[in-house]
Design brief:
Blueprint (H helix, E strand, L loop, with lengths): L4 E2 L18 H11 L16 H4 L5 H8 L5 H7 L5 H24 L1 E4 L20 H11 L6 E5 L6 H6 L6 E8 L12 E5 L5 H15 L7 E5 L17 H16 L5 E4 L8 H8 L1 H7 L3
Parallel strand pairs: 1-2, 2-7, 3-4, 3-6, 4-5, 6-7
Length: about 300
Amino acid sequence: MTLAVLHHPDFQADLAPGHRFPMAKYGLIARYLVEDGLLAASDFVQPEPVEFDQAARAHDPAYVRQVFDARVDGRIAREIGFDVSPAVARRARLSSGASLAAGRLALALGIATSTAGGSHHARRTQGAGFCVFNDVAIAAANLIAGGEARRILVFDCDVHQGDGTADIFRGDRRVVTVSIHNEKNYPLRKIASDLDVGLPDHVRDDAYLETVQDTLDRALAFGLPDLVFYNAGVDPHGDDRLGRLALTDEGLARRDRAVIGFFRQRAIPVACVQGGGYSSDVAEIARRHTIVHHVAAEFA
């Protein structure tokens, strides 16, 4: 079976020249997946942008209105790291729609991926850290509200702690938040997840994989989820400009295989989102982001 992959050309929005957020990677990820023969260009599933009420299930309606109108408060825009233009607002809506669709496809098929998503620093009342909307939080909140899932696990392996997701679901036992991250990294003030595993600098493949396996076991202590959202950020890589860990490409593939395999062996659906990855070489980062799709295809 061909892996269900969500993609939209408008995942890529123009930013100021030289901006350190590698927006151009999103189109390249899709291109490389086609060049690799993982799927044909016509096989991508195109998401719909989330509507206002859907976004407001995870975010404060006043902030949602700012984004929809592309009139985000200047202070919040500075915390996000770029202005929220109409194109950036559409991108945030599409990315959230893709994560919601990936969740639904995973529930139906067992696994699905998105070439965007993982914007885990967006909190209930605002965006931050290159994140406008918290796509996974929007997806999880809507799946629960619609009765499509009763318990959801967010398993976040981005190198930065998932503070926004933790904020949105603080006190909500229907969504369990787990974050494995570099402790001495953004955000400076972390918001406690249900389970946080902060790693020291320079952790390499084997030690990291041991931590992942241990954390997977601990995550199930919260109960079996109906669905897992897996943030497969590649910024734990040793060459990442905003990470402080030391994984290799092989280590990332081993991580993805360990996480996806752990849940699929238990017949738990998995929806994979991209998460972070930063380099002056956008092609290198895009290629690295394809790893999770190739691994996910092994389980399709």
